[in-house]
Write a structure and sequence with these properties.
The chain is of the alpha+beta class. It is built from 14 helices and 6 strands. Strands 1, 2, 3, 4, 5 and 6 form a 6-stranded mixed sheet that branches. Strand 2 and strand 3 form a beta hairpin. The longest helix is centred in the N-terminal third of the chain and has 24 residues. The chain is elongated. The two termini are 30 Å apart. The model has no long low-confidence stretch (mean pLDDT 89).
């Protein structure tokens, strides 16, 4: 039901293939985000609920003074709460966003076999900036550096370069080069993958299927342990860029802009 509604609302202008991909990758975050913004709507109507319930029971009587106090409070609240949301708009939006990010991190990002609870704690201790990017859904667009840093911080696993099918959103970008795939990087461990775009963990084969992936190259921890990120990038870019050109794949690794 939720997927159907999303197809007919926020994804309605996208082709069916793009809808399928986004529903499997980022729809969960959009739902959580929407529910967190609805918190303010619930808070607005909450004080009116007891009054409506009491009004149903005709045998419940209040003195005139009590009725005046309740009515006055509800009138002030009905006007004051929307004004509060307008005056503190940025703060309320920020709170809802932070709440959504936290719920998503605990309910989705941390669930899987690529990264254990201990792994997340290790990342937090080794690189707080990296941990914050993962925890706040801000690793989107930095798959190369984030996955490389995760592998180095955990000293295990591997990073996998794959070409993923572009969505209609990618192709509508004015900077799109017309290619059908774009280079993406995953962190791989225990047969599972962590994906920076969705900030979620998936069985590797499932994620490959969702993204219609073409596998380019994989690097395990031992092959990068003695290299800095810049050294690794400068060393591997020519070969991966050549592979991308042959496989109808966009790449902008040099600028760390491509996800």
């Amino acid at each position: 039901m939720i997927k159907y509604l999303m197809r007919k609302t926020i994804y309605k202008k996208l082709d069916h293939e793009t809808q399928d991909m986004l529903l499997q990758l980022i729809a969960r975050y959009h739902v959580i985000e929407f529910l967190c913004f609805m918190v303010w709507e619930v808070l607005y109507i909450f004080p009116f609920i007891p009054v409506l319930i009491i009004d149903v029971f005709e045998d419940v009587k209040f003195s005139m003074t009590t009725q005046i106090v309740i009515t006055t409070f509800l009138l002030i609240y009905a006007v004051g709460f929307p004004l509060f949301l307008i005056v503190f708009k940025n703060a309320t939006i920020g709170f809802s966003q932070l709440l959504a990010e936290r719920i998503y991190f605990l309910s989705s990002t941390k669930k899987g076999k690529a990264l254990s609870k201990k792994d997340f704690e290790t990342i937090r201790q080794v690189d707080e900036t990296l941990y914050a990017a993962i925890a706040t859904h801000n690793c989107i667009g930095y798959c190369y550096s984030v996955c490389f840093s995760m592998c180095k911080a955990l000293q295990k696993g591997s990073i996998e370069f794959i070409a993923v099918k572009k969505t209609a959103i990618d192709k509508d970008d004015e900077d799109d080069d017309g290619k059908n795939f774009t280079m993406h990087v995953l962190y791989i461990n225990n047969g599972w993958a962590f994906d920076t775009y969705s900030s979620r963990q998936y069985p590797v084969e499932n994620l490959h299927k969702i993204c219609k992936a073409k596998i380019c190259k994989t690097f395990n921890y031992d092959s990068i342990r003695d290299k800095s990120y810049d050294e690794f990038r400068d060393e591997q870019y020519p070969e991966i860029a050549k592979w991308s050109a042959i496989n109808d794949c966009s790449i902008s690794w040099k600028d760390d802009e491509e996800t």
